[in-house]
Amino acid sequence: MRIGELAARTGASVRALRYYEQQGLLAPQRTAAGQRVYSPQHESAVATIRDLLAAGFCSSVIRALLPALSDPVMSSERLRSTVDAAETRLRSEKHVITQELDRLAELRTQWGLAPHPHVRNESGSHDESHDPEAAPFDHRDRRLRRGGPLLP
Predict the structure, then answer these.
(1) Which of 19, 30, 31, 144 lies at a 20 to 30 A Cα distance from 150?
(2) Is 109 helix (H, G, I), strand (E, B) or coil?
(3) Would the pTM count as exceeding 0.90?
(4) Mind listing the pLDDT tens digit for each residue in 115-138?
């Protein structure tokens, strides 16, 4: 199948599929004219990649995990340790975020500020606010990165 058909079947954009290839996550065949040709296995690989991205893994970690996911001989211990490390990292990030939110609440109280009506509770995102005076989004990277305890 061509890239447009894979995009339609998986819900991934054509741009995302090209990015996955650039990052070494997908390796489509090429026609003599250089067009990408995908197999049905690529469809399930894209679903796995999207699941891992949604769980917070970055492309370099996903690239290292994909062989373990597709090879039944590879140790499930490697997968378990990677997922355990990811969970530990996310819980740590959650703790840091909770501390930051607590500090903001303390500052609000200290300064006599009422909560802003556009800031949402835990079920929403403060980043969705369209208030031009709202604080800009802090772009600190909270993705799970290769290195440390995630991968050997």
Answers:
(1) 19
(2) helix
(3) no
(4) 777 766 555 544 444 554 555 544
3-state secondary structure of 70: helix
Distance of alpha carbon 132 from the chain centroid: 27
Helix H or strand E segment including 36: strand 36-37
> If we measure between CA atoms, which residue out of 134, 138, 146 comes closest to residue 58?
146
103 backbone dihedrals φ, ψ, rounded to 5°: -65, -40
Name residues whose C-beta falls within 8 Å of residue 89's C-beta, 6 or more positions apart in sequence: 144, 148, 149, 150
Give CA–CA dist 139/89, Å, rounded: 18
The Cβ-side half-sphere exposure at 129, using a 13 Å CA radius, reads 16
Decide if 17 contacts 7 (C-beta within 8 A).
yes
The token duo for 1 is 């199948």
